[in-house]
């Protein structure tokens, strides 16, 4: 099968998506394992390879000798067409084995607009769409991910769905499959007894004449509701040390380490903040160990500390310092996800910029104090302006803001305030940096299940366009860039966000009309969706624009049953009264129902705070707190500024320290054959740079705020053509035996690349050209 796939790759976009020979990919003999799992993200390789959750599951399963796990991603439309033209089934990347022959086909449900991709995957795999039409000869179709908290629009396509933290349940699922793989009815009953596993076929749904749900009736005794599966101690939870190194630029082209799961801030629009409660943190020492191991295993140049609210990780500043002290000399940068404006400190900025200026994304969400109280955001305009001043005065020229429109109780004045706040912020930026620029990302609000807004109406499509036009009319500066999310995309998301099982027919009809990759602007075919719901007699306004009543049975009421529905309703009413509710990890428990106060509870680590007697005290009151024992922090900001004023070097500070030693240059010849031939020239550039890093070669770096390894290349190489006797030049800070360089590179390069010779360039020879830059990933359109 592999050879057939390679033959069609020259005819498709980005053939590197379909190779499967990446560094750290796991290949097992499928005949020697008891359970074979095909793990799938229903989007392109670039999106799926950035998903930390699937990386965790992939390596967790492969650590078991009796289980083999391989990867699948949705083929882009050109590849789908070629597969159908040549009658090629959907196969896994590692072995090119048809998915149909696996025991479990695990498909993540990350986002409502990937639903049609799920049908594409099932169809290409030659697996019946509906669970009722399958038998023991078919793989178990297992779902999971964020979309599992209301999977009802696609529930009938799945045999079972994990609600909550998948790493807690996946091994138990595999044990059940191992025992009952030839008896599907018994397997489903066994799965229903695993905490956190939802078997849709064991529930029947009945509707009222007005279309609302009358009853969700359990069909299996003792199986009336599904409790979320929760990792109680994140610090003890599994996290891989050797993630796969992607062939091409992916959306998050860096090491991503989850430092905290869950958030207790209570932002009322944020589904993740509710469904991933409670707050659980990894210790800084564990994070540092993971980063150290993953850098050595991947050779990647950037690290991202991942959390829903990174500023709530109390040790973030000393952790940043420790990471930069350890990895900064090797030009490894550290970035943070979107940050609350009041939590981004100057000390954090100074640590981040020691190697390279990664971007800053701030999420105010609303531009007026009234609206921030409505959504329980809890920050001020003063916070935002102060943060902007600090960012721009420290050399950054771009900030990105996220706002929403269409929030409950929003007025035109609230919308116009987004533009006014943008102007104020830009004005401050230009006072400190004449190149200051601001991107305003604006998304239509979509109410989500298990939030206080699960009862709220979503604004109609026409109203959304009107609000965006109002905002555009207030923005005139070319340095203030409006980046709106497509309203049609948000409206379609709203249809399915609070949808029920009757929408499975809509997904199928739209798929039959050719809908694919609806989450991509270039993929969305909104007119086809309109045709589909008109033909089926489905009114989208019923799901999107209608306010729900308190006593209405919601389609997801039998899932995540520990989250108290009455408590969410009280929060909805508090929102309408603009009442602010404090963070439960620092104040009083709000009794949301998630914690059992034994195993499932808030767990955090804090930087020590000393009292008058010099003893460490705890800041949080309703959580288990462990103190991060660190040496007293130096005055990072003062030291950094002093070094710049005096032009003295600081560890890791770019452009200040003199170049150490003498450059030693080498000329290397190589070939790219087989699967290696399908990597583009720029993909090979990144592949080689990471191989050099993993090989621990003392590569020389360029100077400036974006240091690059000094490796220079010849002319660009064509994709799909085998090449021999190609050449690149490598500059090192110390002499290394040429044969040792060749050996290390060949050990680290993926299949299809071979370094044939390495020779040292004489000291009096003409120096090699400056390294070719590696441009940042820029997909045609990012979902």
Description:
With 783 residues, the protein is of the alpha/beta class. Helix content is 31%, strand content 16%. The protein is built from 23 helices and 25 strands. The strands form eight sheets. A six-stranded mixed β-sheet has the order 2-1-3-4-5-6. The chain has a four-stranded parallel β-sheet with strand order 14-15-16-17. Helix 5 links the parallel strand 3 (104-108) and strand 4. Helix 14 runs parallel beside helix 15, helix 17 packs across helix 18 and helix 22 packs across helix 23 (738-748). Residues 630-660 and 770-783 have low confidence and may be disordered.
Using brief descriptors, characterize the structure shown:
six-stranded mixed beta sheet; four-stranded parallel beta sheet; 783 residues; 23 helices; disordered C terminus; alpha/beta
Report the mean per-residue pLDDT as an integer. 89
Total beta-strand segments = 25
Number of helices: 23
Percent helix, as a range, is 25-40%
What's the quaternary structure here? Answer: single chain
Strand content: 15-25%
Return the structural class: alpha/beta
Strand count, sense and closure of the main sheet? 6 strands, mixed
The rounded distance between the terminal residues' Cα atoms is 31 Å
- Low-pLDDT runs of 5+ residues are 630-660, 770-783
Molecular shape: globular
The order of strands across the largest sheet is: 2-1-3-4-5-6
Q: What is Rg?
A: 27 Å
């Amino acid at each position: 099968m592999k050879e057939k796939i390679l033959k069609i790759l020259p005819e498709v976009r980005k053939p590197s998506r379909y190779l499967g020979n990446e560094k750290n990919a796991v290949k097992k003999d499928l005949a020697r394992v008891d359970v074979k799992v095909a793990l799938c993200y229903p989007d392109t390789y670039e999106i799926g390879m950035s998903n930390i959750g699937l990386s965790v599951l992939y390596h967790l399963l492969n650590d078991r000798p009796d289980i083999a796990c391989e990867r699948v991603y949705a083929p882009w439309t050109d590849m789908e067409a070629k597969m159908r033209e040549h009658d090629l089934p959907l196969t896994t990347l590692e072995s090119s084995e048809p998915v149909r022959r696996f025991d479990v086909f695990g498909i993540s449900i990350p986002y409502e607009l990937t639903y049609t991709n799920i049908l594409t995957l099932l169809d290409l795999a030659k697996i019946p769409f509906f669970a009722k039409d399958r038998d023991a000869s078919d793989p178990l179709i297992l779902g999971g991910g964020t979309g599992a908290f209301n999977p009802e629009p696609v529930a009938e396509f799945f045999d079972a769905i994990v609600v909550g933290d998948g790493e807690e349940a996946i091994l138990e699922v595999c044990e059940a499959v191992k025992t009952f793989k030839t008896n599907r009815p018994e397997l489903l009953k066994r799965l229903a007894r695993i905490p956190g596993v939802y078997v849709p076929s064991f529930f029947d749904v009945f509707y009222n004449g007005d279309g609302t749900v009358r009853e969700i009736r359990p069909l299996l005794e003792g199986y009336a509701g599904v409790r979320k599966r929760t990792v109680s101690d994140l610090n003890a939870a599994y996290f891989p040390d050797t993630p796969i190194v992607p062939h091409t630029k992916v959306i998050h082209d860096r090491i991503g380490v989850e430092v905290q799961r869950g958030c207790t801030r209570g932002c009322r629009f944020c589904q993740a903040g509710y469904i991933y409660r409670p707050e659980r943190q990894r210790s800084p020492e564990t994070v540092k160990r993971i980063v150290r191991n993953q850098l050595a295993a991947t050779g990647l140049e950037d690290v991202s500390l991942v959390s829903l609210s990174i500023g709530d990780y109390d040790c973030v500043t000393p952790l940043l310092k420790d990471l930069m002290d350890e990895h900064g000399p090797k030009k490894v940068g550290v970035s943070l996800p979107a940050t609350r404006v009041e939590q981004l400190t100057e000390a954090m900025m100074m640590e981040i910029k020691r190697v390279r200026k990664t971007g800053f994304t701030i999420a105010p969400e609303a531009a007026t104090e009234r609206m921030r109280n409505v959504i329980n955001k809890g920050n001020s305009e003063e916070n935002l302006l102060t943060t902007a001043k600090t960012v721009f005065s420290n050399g950054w020229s771009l900030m990105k803001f996220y706002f929403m429109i269409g929030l409950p109780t929003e007025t035109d004045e609230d919308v116009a305030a987004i533009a006014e706040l943008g102007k104020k912020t830009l004005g401050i930026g230009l006072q400190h940096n004449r190149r200051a620029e601001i991107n305003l990302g604006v998304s239509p609000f979509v109410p989500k299940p298990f939030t206080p807004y699960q009862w709220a109406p979503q604004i109609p499509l026409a109203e959304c366009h009107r609000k965006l036009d109002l905002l555009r009319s207030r923005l005139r500066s070319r340095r203030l860039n409006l980046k709106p999310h497509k309203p049609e995309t948000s409206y379609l998301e709203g249809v399915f966000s609070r949808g029920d099982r009757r929408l499975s027919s809509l997904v199928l009809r739209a798929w039959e009309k050719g809908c694919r990759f609806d989450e991509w602007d270039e993929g969305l075919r909104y007119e086809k969706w309109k045709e589909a719901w008109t033909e089926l007699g489905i009114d989208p306004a019923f799901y999107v624009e209608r306010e729900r009543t308190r006593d209405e049975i919601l389609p997801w009421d039998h899932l995540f049953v520990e989250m108290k529905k009455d408590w969410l309703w009280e929060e909805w009413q508090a929102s309408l009264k603009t009442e602010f509710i404090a963070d439960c990890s620092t104040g009083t428990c709000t009794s949301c129902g998630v914690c059992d106060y034994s195993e499932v509870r808030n767990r955090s680590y804090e930087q020590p705070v000393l009292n008058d007697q010099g003893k460490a005290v705890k800041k949080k009151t309703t959580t288990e707190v462990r103190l991060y024992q660190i040496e007293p922090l130096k005055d990072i900001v003062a030291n950094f500024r002093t070094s710049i004023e005096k032009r003295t070097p600081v560890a890791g500070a770019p452009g200040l320290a003199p170049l150490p030693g003498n450059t030693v240059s080498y000329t290397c010849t190589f070939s790219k054959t087989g699967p290696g031939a399908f990597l583009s020239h720029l993909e090979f550039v990144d592949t080689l740079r990471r191989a050099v890093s993993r090989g621990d070669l003392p590569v020389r770096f360029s100077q400036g705020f974006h240091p690059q390894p000094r490796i220079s290349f010849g002319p660009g190489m064509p994709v799909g053509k085998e090449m021999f006797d190609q050449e690149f030049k490598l500059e090192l800070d110390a002499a290394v035996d040429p044969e040792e360089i060749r050996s290390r590179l060949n050990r680290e390069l993926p299949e299809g690349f071979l370094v044939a010779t390495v020779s040292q360039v004489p000291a009096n020879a003409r120096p090699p050209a400056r390294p070719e830059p590696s441009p940042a990933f820029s997909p045609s359109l990012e979902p």
